[in-house]
Amino acid sequence: MRREPTEAEAKLWSILRGQRLGGLKFRRQDQLGDYIVDFVCFGARVIVEADGGQHAENSADAVRDAWLTEQGFRVLRFWNNDILGNLDGVARVILDASLPPLPNPSPEVGEGL
């Protein structure tokens, strides 16, 4: 896979590599437990998968995703045609999922402005 990525994986890697997306450091084709993930950012605990038709309603993917989630990762799956046709939108979703949530400055007891 690393030597011959799919067109969608190559396109996705072009925006994830070299900390090009929000300064996030992604690795590709990395092993976590018994699984190899397409792309992982350990700092943000995000995994990005580029999926073709073989992944449609795949029960093995559900088991895999559950295990990765138990390890503290957020798994984002994108269909290849979404990556190829809307790379900017895919990048926005990945970036949004990778950033820490904003603190909620609202007081708990209803006081404020």
Structure description:
The chain has 113 residues and is α+β, with helices and mostly antiparallel strands. The protein has a single domain (7-98), classed as VSR Endonuclease (Endonuclease, Chain A, 3-Layer(aba) Sandwich), CATH 3.40.960.10. The protein contains 4 helices and 4 strands; from the N terminus they run αβββαβαα. The protein has a 4-stranded mixed beta sheet, with helices on both faces.
**Structural category:** alpha+beta
Q: Per CATH, what is the topology?
A: Endonuclease, Chain A
Total domain units: 1
Give the helices and strands as they follow along the chain: HEEEHEHH
**CATH-scheme architecture:** 3-Layer(aba) Sandwich
Q: Layout of helices and strands, plus pairs?
A:
Layout: H1 7-16, E1 27-32, E2 35-41, E3 46-51, H2 59-70, E4 74-79, H3 80-85, H4 87-98
Parallel strand pairs: 3-4
Antiparallel strand pairs: 1-2, 2-3
Features:
113 residues; Endonuclease, Chain A; four-stranded mixed beta sheet; 4 strands; 35% helix; globular
Short description:
Helix content is 35%, strand content 22%. The protein has helices at residues 7-16, 59-70, 80-85, 87-98; strands at residues 27-32, 35-41, 46-51, 74-79.
